[in-house]
Amino acid sequence: PITDYIVGLPPSPNEDDPDLVLRERDSLFELVESRIGSSITLVVYSSVMDSLRLVELAPRFDWGGPGCMGCDIGFGPLHQIPNPNAE
């Protein structure tokens, strides 16, 4: 839904792995492309439920639609997480 926002990656259970921080939009695209054919877990914020959840994706090109994630990705000023206190 348009009320969900990818906010990052869960911490790695392996302390030897560097943290994967998505600092730019290209970081997400590069990460997803590197995981095509395997799975990736993302932290997603729901502005409707005001909560975080883990979502596991399996990027692939043969799912029946455009792209490899099965969703649209928006970025920039029009795609910011809404302020729950704004009216």
UniProtKB/TrEMBL annotation:
PROSITE patterns: PDZ_GRASP. GO terms for biological process: Golgi organization. Transmembrane segments: none annotated. It is found in: Golgi apparatus membrane. The keyword Membrane applies. Gene3D superfamilies: 2.30.42.10. One of its GO terms (cellular component) is Golgi membrane. Keywords: Golgi apparatus, Membrane, Repeat. Residues 1-78 form the PDZ GRASP-type domain. Pfam families: GRASP55_65. The keyword Hydrolase does not apply. It comes from the Eukaryota. Its main location: Golgi. This is PDZ GRASP-type domain-containing protein. The lineage of its organism: Eukaryota, Fungi, Fungi incertae sedis, Chytridiomycota, Chytridiomycota incertae sedis.
